[in-house]
């Protein structure tokens, strides 16, 4: 691949890493860019998982360093996310994920409406509304979804942690990075084992993704819910538009579009 194209993809990874650290949805930017650059679809997914894992790891460390991640409270959740993603990556090889492509836009719109019209996001923790076992199962389910399909995983984790775990906005996003890191690692392991990673490109983009993740984490910590809430709405709606714009999306068939 031409060095100029690699440099452009690194810039894309930096921007995606910044947005992803604040509200998720970085793959909305990087995967189309990789496909447009001529990377085969499965190779694009594997390469994106690799660079995203590095960026998410950097953002996770930044949130942890500032005290926004409680590892003693969340390591079990991370394991549940990892295990769920491994199961999802295995399931996707046996089950057609197209039905999720039709359901997901509806869920994303509902999520955007919640963040837009629901209670104001604050950085103050509230009481937990879900028992620990239930929270573990919910995290494992989202992790399974990430390994199986993927778009919107970060937003789903954040919504769960705010509404069910009672976390403030910044802590919820910080713990989302940890859970996303766990699910990304499971995906990377599966895709590396299958030989679906372009190492030179993935590692080059990873450098930029780490830098973007640091910037995004700093902005999220600095501005808290004021910045996170509108970004969550924008990312959810952007993912919806992207999915519905696909002529193969089952929702278009169901609605006769």
UniProtKB/TrEMBL annotation:
Primary location: membrane
Record keywords: Cell membrane, Membrane, Transmembrane, Transmembrane helix, Transport
Subcellular location: Cell membrane
InterPro entries registered for this protein in UniProt: TM_pro_TauE-like, TSUP
Membrane topology: Multi-pass membrane protein
Transmembrane segments: 46-64, 76-93, 99-118, 130-148, 154-173, 185-207
UniProt record similarity statement: Belongs to the 4-toluene sulfonate uptake permease (TSUP) (TC 2.A.102) family.
Protein name stated in the entry: Probable membrane transporter protein
């Amino acid at each position: 691949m031409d060095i100029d194209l690699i440099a452009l993809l690194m810039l894309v990874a930096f921007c995606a890493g910044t947005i992803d650290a604040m509200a998720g949805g970085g793959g909305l930017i990087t995967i189309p860019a990789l496909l447009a650059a001529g990377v085969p679809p499965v190779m694009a997914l594997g390469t994106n998982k690799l660079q995203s894992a590095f960026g998410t790891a950097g953002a996770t460390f930044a949130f942890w360093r500032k005290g926004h991640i409680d590892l003693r409270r969340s390591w079990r959740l991370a394991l549940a996310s990892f295990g769920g993603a491994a199961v999802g990556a295995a399931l996707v090889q046996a089950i057609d994920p197209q039905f999720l492509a039709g359901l997901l836009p509806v869920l994303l719109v509902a999520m955007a409406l919640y963040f837009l019209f629901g209670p104001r996001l604050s950085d103050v923790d509230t009481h937990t509304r879900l028992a620990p076992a239930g929270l573990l199962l919910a995290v494992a389910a989202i992790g399974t979804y990430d390994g199986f399909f993927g778009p919107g995983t970060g937003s789903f984790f954040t919504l769960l942690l705010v509404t069910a775990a009672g976390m403030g906005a910044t802590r919820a996003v910080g713990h989302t990075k940890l859970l996303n890191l766990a699910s990304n690692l499971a995906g990377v392991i599966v895709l590396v084992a299958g030989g679906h990673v372009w190492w030179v490109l993935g590692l080059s983009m990873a450098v930029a993704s780490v830098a973007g993740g640091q910037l995004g984490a700093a902005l999220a910590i600095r501005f808290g819910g004021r910045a996170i809430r509108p970004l969550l709405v924008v990312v959810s709606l952007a993912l919806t538009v992207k999915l519905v714009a696909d002529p193969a999306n089952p929702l278009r068939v169901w609605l006769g579009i």
